[in-house]
Automatic annotation (TrEMBL):
Gene Ontology annotations for the cellular component aspect, listed alphabetically: mitochondrion
InterPro entries named among the record's database cross-references: 3Beta_OHSteriod_DH/Estase, ClpP/crotonase-like_dom_sf, Enoyl-CoA_hyd/isom_CS, Enoyl-CoA_hydra/iso, NAD(P)-bd_dom_sf
Record keywords, A-Z: Lyase
The keyword Transcription regulation is annotated on this UniProt entry: no
Ribosomal protein is among the record's keywords: no
GO BP annotation list: fatty acid beta-oxidation
PANTHER family per record: ENOYL-COA HYDRATASE-RELATED (PTHR11941), SD19268P (PTHR11941:SF171)
Family: Belongs to the enoyl-CoA hydratase/isomerase family.
Protein name: 3-beta hydroxysteroid dehydrogenase/isomerase domain-containing protein
Originating species: Caerostris extrusa (Bark spider)
Residue ranges constituting the 3-beta hydroxysteroid dehydrogenase/isomerase domain according to the UniProt record: 297-360
CDD domains listed in its UniProt record: BVR-B_like_SDR_a, crotonase-like
Superkingdom, natural source: Eukaryota
Length: 457
């Protein structure tokens, strides 16, 4: 079997960009929901925009719209189609000026604490959403408004936007998570200065201290930050949805623990991404096989059945491809054979005919051994693997031969090593092997070499 992966149009130096291609489409609004002070728009492709819309109060947070905010977050949390959330304002000149002080003044002492608790929980719920979130700050973001933005993964502001946690002016402290999240984002000393002084800063200053990811010039429509946030959302929407959710979990959980515990989180979540459906669908993959059942759970977009000894079959599979991965086997038949080397020769000839330059080939690590030390039953197959290597060396293609040790049915570890012309370890996860076969197509360091792989011993 060999797999052919489309690698067109991008530099070889960046493996991830090569293997992931973007489809820029017009994202239409599929539904609109209006609640108290909120407009929720669902766009095609999993993008959700949440527009704050209380113009009479500059989007101040009251009991009813906080309750609506909680309801919206609950729906998004359970929405498997949701990919990215952008929070923005439909009120020109204001993102959110914080709690509704007029409403707060009319509350009894018994009502204030539950309201603040509800507000704090809503921002925690926002922070805990499984999808990436972006706050677009066009205008004032004060008190609870800034705390809402701090609950997002990323913040984009206009250069003229004004933001600050100003509660100490009212002889109180931030109650929606501001003391904790601001300190984690800009550092405790800067956070203390801003909170102690109740200072309001503009977008440019916010960018300098790392409070916002981007600060853009405001436009005549007053939505410069929103447009930049939408562009950022488009970049994110192109990536694997499961990977995005797990990357967010790894980052958030890792921030609360020591580095070694954080790395353990990363390893655990990385293992969950390997073999997932959307990971496979992130690439354009054509599989050429004799038996479709051998693909198991893997579902390439294109499957061509054929025989590597049949030049017409091979040529049909390689047409319009930009890279080739060769993984040939003998179905546990260890008798003398030239099937693998003859098949490799046919593939290389077809690659030349179709002007396909890059190829990675998986062959036996027994080639690192002295031939007399190879177990006798494996000598005939090893000899054909050697002939495969010689075919690669004779070709004018850009090749890499990967010599894996024992291929294990275990989760990916990620800490593998790759060495030119030298063995590395005794075992490799089949998932790490798949990554290596792909990555070697785009790594100039290994072109023209046979490489050993494995985990450090």
């Amino acid at each position: 079997m060999f797999l052919l992966k489309a690698l067109s149009g991008v530099k070889h130096a960046n493996c991830r960009n090569i293997l992931t291609f973007s489809l820029k489409i017009e994202r239409n609004i599929s539904s609109v929901e209006k609640l108290c002070g909120l407009n929720v728009e669902r766009h095609t492709g999993g993008l959700i925009t949440l527009g704050l819309n209380r113009p009479q109060t500059k989007n101040a947070l009251g009991r009813e719209n906080v309750e609506s905010f909680v309801q919206v977050l609950d729906k998004i949390k359970d929405d498997k189609e949701a990919r990215v959330l952008v929070i923005h304002s439909l009120v020109k000149g204001a993102f959110c000026v914080g709690a509704d002080l007029k409403e707060r003044a009319a509350m009894s002492e018994e009502e204030v604490a539950p309201f603040v608790t509800k507000l704090r929980k809503s921002i925690t719920d926002l922070h805990d959403l499984p999808i990436p979130t972006i706050a677009a700050i066009d205008g004032y973001a004060l008190g609870g408004g800034l705390e809402m933005a701090l609950g997002c993964d990323m913040r984009v502001s206009s250069s003229t936007a004004k933001m600050g946690l100003v509660e100490t002016k009212l002889a109180i402290i931030p109650g929606g998570g501001g003391t904790q999240r601001l300190a984690r984002i800009v550092g405790p000393a800067i956070a203390k200065e801003l909170i102690f002084a109740a200072r309001i800063i503009d977008g440019n200053e916010a960018f300098k201290i790392g409070l916002v990811n981007h600060a853009v010039e405001q436009n005549s429509e007053g939505d410069g930050a929103y447009l930049k946030a939408m562009a950022l959302a488009e970049e994110i929407l192109d990536q694997g949805p499961i990977a995005l959710r797990l990357a967010k979990l790894a980052i958030n959980k890792g921030l609360d623990v020591d580095i070694n515990s954080g790395l353990a989180f990363e390893q655990a979540y990385y293992a969950q991404t390997v073999g997932t459906k959307d990971r496979i669908e992130g690439y354009e993959v054509t599989a050429f096989v004799r038996d479709k059942a051998k693909l198991g759970a893997v579902s390439p977009q294109n499957i061509i059945q054929g025989d590597v000894l049949n030049k017409d079959d091979v040529n049909k599979a390689i047409e319009n491809q930009d890279g080739v991965i060769i993984v040939l086997g003998t179905r546990n038949d260890l008798s003398p054979t030239t099937v693998m080397s003859d098949g490799t020769k046919n593939i290389l000839e077809s690659m030349k005919k179709n002007n396909v330059k890059r190829v990675t080939c998986c062959i036996s690590s027994f080639l690192f051994w002295e031939r007399e030390k190879v177990p006798k039953p494996y000598i005939p197959v090893t000899e054909d693997h050697d002939r495969m290597l010689q075919e690669l060396k004779k070709s004018d293609r850009e090749w890499v031969a990967v010599l894996p040790p024992h291929i294990a049915e275990e989760p990916a570890r990620g800490n593998f090593e790759i060495k030119n012309e030298a063995p590395v370890g005794r075992v490799i996860s089949k998932y790490d092997l798949a990554d290596i076969l792909v990555d070697c197509l785009t790594n100039e360091d290994h072109i023209g070499h046979y490489v050993g792989i494995g985990y450090p011993q």
